[in-house]
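Write out structure tokens for Adenosylhomocysteinase.
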Amino acid sequence: MDCTRDYCVKDISLAPEGEKKIDWVSRFMPVLQSIRKDFEKEKPFKGLKIATCLHLEMKTAFLLLTLKAGGAEVSATASNPLSTQDDVVAALAKNGVKVYAIRGENREEYYENMHKALDIKPNILIDDGADMVSTVLKERQELIENIWGASEETTTGVIRLRAMEKDGVLRFPIIAVNDSYTKYLFDNRYGTGQSTWDGILRSTNLLIAGKNVVVVGYGWCGRGIAMRAKGLGATVIVVEVDPIRALEARMDGFLVMSMNEAAKVGDIFVTSTGDINCIRREHFEVMKDGVIMANAGHFDVEISKPDLESLAVEINNPRPHITEYKLKDGRRLYLLAEGRLVNLAAADGHPAEIMDMSFALQAMAAKYIRDNHEKLENRVYVLPREIDEMVARIKLKAMGIEIEQLTEEQKKYLESWEHGT
């Protein structure tokens, strides 16, 4: 372990390998490249401090270096103990980011590093899962007077933050980046859809075609997971509590069942709900031998590990990222990545082209907070539509796609109420 006042990483000598990774993904992130060029010229964050709690892998690193290029002092800590890439954090440390994260750190170390990242006394927070905001509100209230606002990356975090707003405990404004169109329509659906299966396939090296895949939750992440499972040849079963989403899943061509029913027939289970104990004891008790379970939600609570451990007579690790629970009757149930985010714990997370848009939004959210913090209230906001459209236009241009433009006549028609039948 290499630790100084400015960083704490596993091995600083890993930096060259991390730099190669960051350079590779940056080539496929044209929107963030464009924003970085603007930031380098304008220095919008000169004199400001930005603390981040994110999945510390190569795409995130390019975001952090973009913020630094904009003049910010940047600190970083992990939003998940198993998503950290040690070579990438070493590269960040070498490039002037105050980073405190080691893959596999325990809960005590996780929060110890969180506090180190907060010690810069930030003006802006960038969070993924709302742990950093929560820590400030509960344990580091002396920092609040300096904080202009925060942005949140993921669905789970936004749910927590809206609960804070409802309870009246928010002390600074929040930008729900997750709720921007160019985030959830692409990151949650196409990003999670591909990267979840990447993690499952890397861990197991098993065939998906012909299997019954149970997708628990049919939000945007669940839609993406189900869509990709179907493409891989699986029979897809959706478990959902929302009647409208359940109906949508059925009309999208998927079977819809309760978890009690699905538990009996599923071969692979993937949770993506943001809620606790979606798969639990009564479901484990009726599952087939050899079932594989993975989680695509932010926290490791969707598949009940305490219930698995209480039912098991033997626990083994047959392959990296696989925990085998042998039950009294001889059945074996397999949990991937300790029930944590399988796409980041067992793979490299979302593709660079997807995170290009999500992290472009994060960069612009920080700038939006800088420009508007004095008039924002202590509540949860969504970025203005024009920022969403800016990101989409840059992305389309990079893809070589030209879209149609409205004529003046068409604009006038759409603004008028006088034309009828």
